[in-house]
Each structure stands twice: as structure tokens, then as C-alpha cells.
Amino acid sequence: MKKYFAQVTIFLTVKANSTKEVEKIVKEKFTGYDPAIEIMNKRRTSQQNAALHLFFTQLAETLNDKGFYMNKVLKGSTDVIWTPLLVKEIMWKPLQKAMFGKKSTTALLKMGQIDKIYDVINKVVSERTDGEVYIPFPSIEEVMSKEQNV
Questions:
Q1: Is residue 24 part of a domain?
Q2: In a domain, 103, yes or no
Q3: Which structural domain, as residue segments, surrounds residue 93?
Q4: Below-50 pLDDT ranges, the chain
Q5: Measuring CA to CA, which residue among 55, 32, 45, 22 is closest to residue 125?
Q6: Could you tell me if 110 and 43 are in contact, meaning their C-beta atoms sit under 8 angstroms apart?
């Protein structure tokens, strides 16, 4: 009988206290196999954090420059100018809590969560400003140049 070899990718969610414990659990579950384990859901990187804060700054500045103060973007708000901190605390964090149950941006996972929150914020801001405000998420080049200028 001819044997076939295949590489299969399986995504698992494993609750554990450490990556070593995750590896142990997976190897026990797949006894007789040699699984290649890559932990994907690590917390966001320092570059992602820098990009987040650059995005908060760029969004605040653009909303203010175009005259879209809080009351024009958020219902029930007062006529206050945006700051990066207000973008983070009033836009980003409530959405992050609602979507992923996480209070702090440090708890966001490296893969996917930042992108999903960013997409929702951009959609809402674009709708509420009639398409006048769109901020692309900062690239690694922007983050690096900003860090060099500090």
C-alpha cells in the first residue's frame, strides 16, 4: 500500500498559562504526530502600539482640521476638539471592549484585533463625515520615521 504525506494546517484555541503549556497540550492531543506549533495570538507589538498612537494623533488632527469636532462625530457630545487621548478613550477603547472584551490596548492580540477595530472606526468616521475623513493605518515606515524624529 502506498503512503501519502500531506501538510495540514489546523487552527486551535488552547487556554493555558504559558506557550510551553500550549505546546505540551497540543503534543498530547496529537500523539503519534509531529506537530509544528506556531503561537499566533501573541499580544500586540511595540510597533503596533506606536502605529496605534500615531493613528490616534492623525485622526484627531484631521477631524479638527476639517471642523468635525466631537458633537459632529459622536451623538450627544459637546463641541470639543479631538485629542489623541480622546480618540483612544472615547472611540477606540469602548469599541475594543465591545468587540473583544478587552479594557487595555496592551491586551490586544497581534493578529487581527487591531485591524478589526480600525476598520469599524474608519467606517463610522467616514459615514459621519460624509467621506471627508479617512486615515490609512500607519505603515511601519511612518512609525519608524516618527520614532527617529522624536
A1: no
A2: yes
A3: 46-149
A4: none
A5: 55
A6: yes
